[in-house]
Amino acid sequence: MILEAITEAQHAGARLSKACAVVGLTARTVERWRRDPEQGDRRRGPISRPANALTDEEEQQLLAVMTSARYRRLPPKQLVPALADDGLYLASESTCYRVQRKHGLRRPPRPIERRATPRPRSVHEATGPNQVWSWDITWLPTVVRGRYLYLYLMMDVWSRRIVGWTVEVRESAEIAAALFVKICEAAQLDPDGLVLHADNGAAMRGATMVATLQTLGVIPSFSRPHVSDDNPYSEALFRTLKHTPAYPSTPFGGTQDAAQWVARFVDWYNVKHRHSRIRFVTPDERHFGAEHAILARRRALYERARRANPERWTRAIRNWTPVGTVTLNPLPATAATERSAA
What we know:
Elements: H1 2-11, H2 16-22, H3 27-35, H4 56-66, H5 76-85, H6 93-102, E1 124-126, E2 132-141, E3 148-156, E4 162-168, H7 173-186, E5 195-198, H8 202-205, H9 207-216, E6 219-222, H10 232-243, H11 255-271, H12 283-287, H13 291-308, E7 326-328, H14 332-341
Parallel strand pairs: 2-5, 5-6
Antiparallel strand pairs: 1-7, 2-3, 3-4
Helix pairs in contact: 5-6, 7-9
């Protein structure tokens, strides 16, 4: 009866996958039935419920938290540490993903393309704040078609903290140099020995910028020509900036309008955003040394949760050890080692 109904729907112009979805089947199941109708259904569901599965009440509580106004925008990898900071443990990250898939709350991931290159790269290591910085410029659209504003952003690679920014109407090495000096003066920082990494843009290699760095004792570092992934920290920051739900859906009205929005973004990013590559602490917490106490509290919470329900923990608790050395443009072998350690 099901095959006849699906065949009739196809003859009427429906796609096989859409017709199957209406009756709760996959296209492969229907194709298998058509190839060998004598074999019958042969579908098999779960035989038993896992002993360590969430109860219906626990699942409903987790679902209510994930759909609440406070947490609904957070993916599980951000949600779990956020709940831990609030003193609440409901389920593991993988369980949160399973519940999201079950109730249709998952969003498809955006593909990220990467291209390897065998050419030598500049490798710099940071073991603390203000050792390696990265900076770049991105365009911000305006209400005038074809005209853009330019956002200069400088960040600390070790802590991921945005240390300074400005919105201007043009790209200029003079503006970049003045911004760097202003940041150092405001933080009362001696930049002698600091590494400043950038791509090969005109503003980055301009004579004024290079001369300023040499005068201050800063070590300039540049991406390899025609390589798109040699400034990963700044590129990742721009991706976060332009994909955040708060990013305006309409162009900016002018420099003041853009600067006001960027100021709000920087405050959120530095103070509230739990960064996935630094154990989900905020850049400010890591930059100013508060991460150790925060991660210690999370570790203690997970230990208590494990002792309360040991049957739900088949492996060690989540790694809440602070991230140590951060490497800018690591060699392939070093990058693989860092990923396995993380």
